[in-house]
Amino acid sequence: MEIAGKVAIVTGAGAGIGAALAHRLVAGGARVVVADLDADTAAKVAGVLGADAVAVGGDVGAESVVAELIAVAEREFGPVDLYFANAGIGGGPGLDSTEEQWAAALNVNVMAHVRAARLLVPGWVERGSGYFVSTASAAGLLTQIGSAPYSVTKHAAVGFAEWLSVTYGDQGVRVSCVCPMGVDTRLLTGDLIPDDPDASALAIKAVTTAGAVLSPEDVADTVVEAMAAEHFLILPHPEVLRMYRNKGSDYDRWLAGMRRFQTMLRG
């Protein structure tokens, strides 16, 4: 898969991984719709990228906003070839997470992916080509100490990406799922559990203790390289594969180890 000449939509592209992806795509010859809840940050990123980018503000958890992104892309550049479901939020802590926190995490981290695929995949099947890239998290393969909504919804994002690949992979629709650990973004500087500083600190400590904190640009480079080879699972932190294998080979041992890790972090 080559990105040159492709039309892409990147959500959550006002900062972090999304902004880095937008820059990397334009540098590789793609044209990009930069989408973000914060219209001003999206406009700043698009402004730097120039004529090959256009900004749209809005909540991509709403199907009407996703439809607008697609319409803008088609009007400005042509049919959408690549969709990066990158927007994501943290959530509440544990069993005391509110219904609103659960609903918000499910809406942005999972249903935004479902709604985008619902609008794009039928057309891709007709054309025989299209690429859906889901930004999940290592938490979707392992777990997230400190936040139940984040962990559960990222697992669901991985599951939906798998389903898309199984169901449409033989019809020209390529799918990748990005599962990094620590990346230098707002989520890792206090926004993972914004309403609970103590739980947020625990969750962030779990991430930063487990491995290196990468730059968004490092992740974007890894994503584009893996897409060239059409890999499904993209792991900017290679050690996640070892952890995932350990989990699958002895689930009880892995769970006991995670409990010990959690105790150490709290102690």
Automatic annotation (TrEMBL):
<dbReference type="InterPro" id="IPR002347">
    <property type="entry name" value="SDR_fam"/>
</dbReference>
<dbReference type="InterPro" id="IPR020904">
    <property type="entry name" value="Sc_DH/Rdtase_CS"/>
</dbReference>
<dbReference type="InterPro" id="IPR036291">
    <property type="entry name" value="NAD(P)-bd_dom_sf"/>
</dbReference>
<comment type="similarity">
    <text>Belongs to the short-chain dehydrogenases/reductases (SDR) family.</text>
</comment>
<dbReference type="Pfam" id="PF00106">
    <property type="entry name" value="adh_short"/>
</dbReference>
<keyword id="KW-0560">Oxidoreductase</keyword>
<protein>
    <submittedName>
        <fullName>Dehydrogenase</fullName>
    </submittedName>
</protein>
<dbReference type="GO" id="GO:0016491">
    <property type="term" value="F:oxidoreductase activity"/>
</dbReference>
